[in-house]
């Protein structure tokens, strides 16, 4: 199937990122530049191909004149999980009273016959409710989308997977993982967020919490995180900007190949904050109550700080060896946190908030 071929190309591009880039890091900076650029082009093209295919599919389905409603309510024990998988059609998850999962879905297509060929399977068990959209295996050109509005009990969690859908989850108390291939992911008020990921689309988190590590990733899109509390935050994008605002965490690992990185939050004592961008600026807005050890480097950009960092000399530049590389190593205050910032083509700024 075409979808499978495109997904394979994305996987191969991801493998290239994991294998080619580390080998190039050990070589000259020019090789790093070329390797990362090749990886970025490969993955971006895979994402665009998936995006074109998925959006065409969704547009065909949603332009249909025929609709069919589906409704089902099933019990779910306290602390249970919803597991929902879809192909095309937006997904909205909310929280309600009681101990039931309320599923309202709308199928859209070109003909009533096509709608009948796409089924919604609901498999309940005491601690888990599985919802699956089923398409006929031996038929092509079935242009049907299924839009879900699902209400789960308080204390329940959810795992959401879709190919061509926007995913929106609000107020989920249990463990939450929200994933899409082509679509935006929006999470608000989650109490135990594990992952919010898409391949082609934006990810937005508002006022979420994670009891452990939280992964926020996309290939082609922006990542915006506001008011997140987590032990560890892992941020990854290939082509897009990263914005972290009022994030309370002991550890941030943020990587972007083509995009700016902005972090506006207090640092934690003993925290570790690693942020890299190949082609983009890195801006840190933080207070002066927590000190940090700073390591910052930019091959072709400048490094500026509003805070009084006591710097160490760059031995390579002082001796005149190697390429001209802008780098700063130093300490602010008690140096209790670690701040590592690196960009190849961009500026680094530390601004007092």
Using brief descriptors, characterize the structure shown.
353 residues, alpha/beta, 3 domains, 14-stranded mixed sheet, 13-stranded mixed sheet, elongated, disordered N terminus
Descriptive notes:
The protein is an alpha/beta fold. Helix content is 19%, strand content 51%. It has helices at 2-25, 29-62, 112-117, 315-318; strands at residues 66-75, 81-88, 91-96, 100-109, 119-125, 128-134, 145-153, 157-164, 167-170, 175-182, 185-188, 192-200, 203-206, 213-217, 223-226, 229-239, 242-245, 248-258, 261-264, 272-279, 282-286, 292-298, 303-305, 310-312, 326-332, 337-345, 348-352. Strands 5-6-2-8-10-12-14-16-18-20-26-22-25-24 form a 14-stranded mixed sheet. The chain has a 13-stranded mixed sheet with strand order 1-4-7-3-9-11-13-15-17-19-21-27-23. Helix 1 packs antiparallel against helix 2 (29-62). It contains four helices and 27 strands. It folds into three domains: 2-62; 64-165, no CATH class; 260-353, no CATH class.
Mean pLDDT: 84
Overall geometric form? elongated
Number of domains: 3
Q: How many distinct helices?
A: 4
Question: Order of strands across the biggest sheet?
Answer: 5-6-2-8-10-12-14-16-18-20-26-22-25-24
> By helix and strand content, what is the structural category?
alpha/beta
Radius of gyration: 23 Å
Overall strand count: 27
What are the SSEs and their pairings?
Elements: H1 2-25, H2 29-62, E1 66-75, E2 81-88, E3 91-96, E4 100-109, H3 112-117, E5 119-125, E6 128-134, E7 145-153, E8 157-164, E9 167-170, E10 175-182, E11 185-188, E12 192-200, E13 203-206, E14 213-217, E15 223-226, E16 229-239, E17 242-245, E18 248-258, E19 261-264, E20 272-279, E21 282-286, E22 292-298, E23 303-305, E24 310-312, H4 315-318, E25 326-332, E26 337-345, E27 348-352
Parallel strand pairs: 2-6, 2-8, 3-7, 3-9, 8-10, 9-11, 10-12, 11-13, 12-14, 13-15, 14-16, 15-17, 16-18, 17-19, 18-20, 19-21, 20-26, 21-27, 22-26, 23-27
Antiparallel strand pairs: 1-4, 4-7, 5-6, 22-25, 24-25
Helix pairs in contact: 1-2
